[in-house]
Amino acid sequence: MPSELSGGQRQRVSLARALAVEPRVLLLDEPFGALDARVRQELRRWLRHLQEQIHLTCILVTHDQEEAMEVSDRVVVMHDGRVEQVGTPEEVYHIPKSEFVLNFLGNVNLFHGRVEAGQAHIGPGKIENAEIDESVAGEAKVFIRPHDLEIHQFEPQGKSSFPAKVRHINAAGSVVKVELMGEDGANFFAEITHDVNRELNLADGDHVFVHVKDVRVFLQEKGEAE
């Protein structure tokens, strides 16, 4: 009986009905939104395999970033009715063309700093590996993803770094999430592996040094509020 089907089974039946007419394009508008996380994950994999088998073009509308990145070959990020960026999942995640795209796809730390001589400065620290034109200078927004922060017990030699204090450690899950506080009092997050966490033996209140492995910088427009 239809009433005895689970949410995931009902969605599969709905998709089978839509495919029965052999459409040239299949439009899916938030197809998994009402389902729990585990069922959504299973259906994403099922839909991906189905696409590969029948070679059907699907347009999937979703607010779930993970869903879009896992299912799609091409991603269109829209904001206020405007296309912000089009590209592969890897392109829009690793090479975002706007602050909105960067913030929308995954967790990110925001630092307010400045750019000069090809370097980004946040508080007392400088980031030497930022790909910035040396002719560009001014106030900037510096975005760093948690997994692009490297924690050291002592100031690393040959690497730019800045001091911070450990506020909280959450070791539940596939990675260890470390909440840190910079010298300016601003909080930010780093993600490290369990092996690194065991090696560092971190504890709340520890003073550490943070090295930035990768960064995205956007110059702040004049008059723009922080």
Descriptive notes:
- The protein has 226 residues and is an alpha+beta fold.
- It folds into two domains: 7-105, Rossmann fold (3-Layer(aba) Sandwich); 109-219, OB fold (Dihydrolipoamide Acetyltransferase, E2P), CATH 2.40.50.140.
- The chain has helices spanning 7-20, 37-54, 65-71, 89-94, 99-104, 194-200, and strands at 25-29, 57-61, 75-79, 82-87, 109-116, 119-122, 125-127, 138-144, 149-152, 162-170, 176-182, 187-192, 207-212, 216-219.
- The strands form four sheets. The chain has a five-stranded antiparallel sheet, with no helix packed on it. Strands 9-13-10-11-12 form a five-stranded antiparallel sheet.
- A hairpin with a 2-residue loop joins strand 5 (109-116) and strand 6 (119-122).
- The longest helix is centred in the N-terminal third of the chain and has 18 residues, at 37-54.
- The radius of gyration is 22 Å and the shape is globular.
- The model has no long low-confidence stretch (mean pLDDT 86).
